[in-house]
Amino acid sequence: MDNTPLPLASTFVSVLQQVLGAPEKGFSLHEPEFAGNEWKYVKECIDTGWVSSIGKYVDEFERCLATYTEAKHAVAVVNGTAAQHIALLLMGIGPGDEVIIPSLSFVATANAVAHCGAIPHFVDSTERTLGLDPEALEKHLKQTTERAAGGLRNTLTGRRIAGIVPMHTFGHPVEITELLEVAGRFGLPVIEDAAESLGSYYQGRHTGTFGHLGILSFNGNKVITTGGGGAILTNDSELARKAKYLTTTAKRPHRWEFFHDEIAYNYRLPNLNAALGCAQLERLEDTLARKRQLTERYREVFQSAHGLHFVEEPKDCHSNYWLNAVRLIDPSMSARDILLSTANDAGFQCRPAWTLLHKLPMYASCPRAELPTAEKLEASLINIPSSAYLAELSR
Amino acid sequence: MDNTPLPLASTFVSVLQQVLGAPEKGFSLHEPEFAGNEWKYVKECIDTGWVSSIGKYVDEFERCLATYTEAKHAVAVVNGTAAQHIALLLMGIGPGDEVIIPSLSFVATANAVAHCGAIPHFVDSTERTLGLDPEALEKHLKQTTERAAGGLRNTLTGRRIAGIVPMHTFGHPVEITELLEVAGRFGLPVIEDAAESLGSYYQGRHTGTFGHLGILSFNGNKVITTGGGGAILTNDSELARKAKYLTTTAKRPHRWEFFHDEIAYNYRLPNLNAALGCAQLERLEDTLARKRQLTERYREVFQSAHGLHFVEEPKDCHSNYWLNAVRLIDPSMSARDILLSTANDAGFQCRPAWTLLHKLPMYASCPRAELPTAEKLEASLINIPSSAYLAELSR
Ligand SMILES: Cc1ncc(COP(=O)(O)O)c(C=O)c1O
Ligand SMILES: Cc1ncc(COP(=O)(O)O)c(C=O)c1O
Fold first, then answer.
1. CB-based contact (8 Å) between A119 and chain B?
2. Hey, what CATH class is A38-282 in?
3. pLDDT tens for each residue of B366-378
4. Ligand nearest A251 Cα, by number?
5. A6-33+284-392 adopts what CATH topology?
6. Mind listing the pLDDT tens digit for each residue in A295-326?
7. Full-prediction pTM beyond 0.95?
8. Which of A75, B91, B226, B312 could pair with B273 in a Cys bridge, judged by C-beta atoms 3.0 to 4.6 Å apart?
9. Which DSSP category does B326 fall into?
10. Residue spans per domain, chain A
């Protein structure tokens, strides 16, 4: 890596400083905030002894999530990866199937596919949303698949293509309507990876509620946290029932008998963690409003930063701006890395997008389309400090 | 089910009443207790914002678990099932392998095998410990296996037998030395399912530290709880390192880069849950001492209960008596069920052992040895209320 400090790096750091001020103890990328009923609810769990699989908060959290997202059902689970694993299983994805995912995503999107014994199949992203590109998807499917007895067949590998998992990158909604249209034409189910997009809307409807199933994550770095946690969203009551059953060891209800009738999982969210989630959800709107103030300020100040482009919410979308991001107008891994090291050295925690999934050794030989936009985005995206409390500093 | 109240059922309930008194609000099977630093540590997590993957309690919990069990390493994970899944993967168990487990166990023991794509292979238990019978195991392996190029081959199925998972039932240690000898003669690794046996010792050494790997569970019904949680125990530093890596997405350490080099899992225990665990561990000795007082009292009073036999810790063992149990001297499913309904109706939460795993539909066609003792135990075991606080009532 060439370590010459670029003029661009100074510009970058000076904009961060202009918005956030001097980093005395450093600004991290995204910090959770516990300013509401967190302690009250968690204390209640401890005082009553209901910290584990019994207790009211899991039900309550599921109800509040469903209300907030306007999904018919939300099933709370132990984390986003587990949610994705179960969602894929519920769509009938199994060993030897291929599942279309973006190469520009967190590794969990691919891992959950692998946990089903299935194989990720990478398709390109678009600069418009940072997510799966409907046109690239359609073109790729047209060129490389055929209808066969068992479903859609990849003519190159001979395997079944069994589903599509679009991901709402950094909270920005993908073109989900267009993706659903393409998926429909090829007979594929869609599972939305909305791990990052709680509070994000596409044409007024909450992300994660368009596909057959959607998933959320409440990891410590997300807009709300349960310590670790996730949820499955669906409008299909039967899928919701199955999701609950499969994530709680498939035990038939009985007063004392232990009778289970499927290979299933312990993917339960403990009541203790759900209690935290309930309190966090109560303040979500306030959190998102303050995050948006911060975003506004970034947007304004980055306008005068030549060579850098502030990433804004896509057309017809309302984004939670989970992680604010800038793009280098001239993509370059080495320039990107100089900006990253300069900013991190100066106390502003910044990070690149993920290493593209098809470059990771365990997924390097998976099938893929051409990925020019993903490559370009990888060499240009930088996430910047995005905690809600930073809004107060940026006034 | 014949519902005639047996004289045995009256005896059973009257003994429970004699020990515990009248169940005003009912006595549940096993309740957690939060009488130490739970509040303090959990509140600290919330106050500092460290509830998720960063924070000191996970390290601290692992250190305390290792100290307590005298295992060289403990790796905290999201629950016991996840611990078992990873332990099996670390022993090289994969699709198409068979793994020896007792049919008398909780479904998670079999599920974790299935999660590796492997097949449970059931062997009988012994009345001496309620766990795997070393003699039955040896006889079965002699009769049905042969040495082959890839390892031990099941001559009936043609598949590789790749490991043995003994389980310490209700906290009572199995004959682990003998099992390790048999395993050694057949070249099989041993993974101890010590989910129920934190605080149980075989010849002075903690359960879960004899095999290549051992696992613990901190589910809400166990002797200590983290809400949901588990741990992997091992004396092998390389296995411990790999366990940590595989349970935390196999991310290579880097200041900002996301580079992962194996298909891995999000099986992290959140810091919030680890904080609870640290406080629970501090009081474990006290909890176990009170549980033992309760056990003493049960033992004494059940002596005069004809037809019932109180289950005591095996020879050379110190048991945590996680769940106290009685056995019907004449095994009978219908008699057992009458005792269960009578006691539960009277407010004493009691339960049978698990439905034998080879009787569950998804495992019904798995390979198995003859299981006469497991069948007998299934028709005779009943767990009775075992929370530590009951010791105070039973004085
Ligand atoms: C895009 C994406 N998918 C899946 C996940 C997995 O969620 P979790 O970390 O809760 O398992 C995450 C978050 O970490 C994510 O960002
Ligand atoms: C014998 C046995 N194995 C495995 C487990 C799985 O542990 P967990 O419930 O924490 O996933 C349990 C406890 O529930 C158990 O009793």
1. no
2. alpha beta
3. 999 999 999 999 9
4. 2
5. Aspartate Aminotransferase, domain 1 (3.90.1150)
6. 999 999 999 999 999 999 999 999 999 999 99
7. yes
8. B226
9. E
10. 6-33+284-392, 38-282
